[in-house]
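Journal club side-thread
Mid-discussion, someone asked how the predicted structure for our own chain would compare to the paper's figures. Pasting it here so we can look after the session.
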Amino acid sequence: MEAIYTAIAHASGGGRDGRVRTEDDRLDLETRPPKELGGSGEGTNPEQLFAAGYSACFLGALHAAGKELKLDTTNAAVSASVGIGSNGNGGFGIQAELDVYVPNVSRDEAEQLAEKAHTICPYSNATRGNMDVKLNIVE
């Protein structure tokens, strides 16, 4: 693969208890572990950042799928829930659940769109086989 665009981000401090910023300074955030992982929960955390990126990317893929399948994705929305927990091997793993809302199509068409988007989205392609991702159609 030849990259068309490359995002650059830097982490400093203690990682989950530090700071992240993008090379262009458009994103500059304090990171803190969530309370559930023993942190203060005062900043953002990698799971929130991943959820934001995945939901935005998947929505873009959903619109691309809509164009390809000639289905109306106007006012569509995607919510991503990203969970973290023990992987049973001394480390951690993540899982994702995507709630997909496509108000202008039937449920069957929404399912078709979500499945097609799942093959287009780079986040889906990167995580496939590496973590559980569940797609839900919401009405």
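Post-session note: The domain at 46-138 is CATH 3.30.300.20 (GMP Synthetase; Chain A, domain 3).
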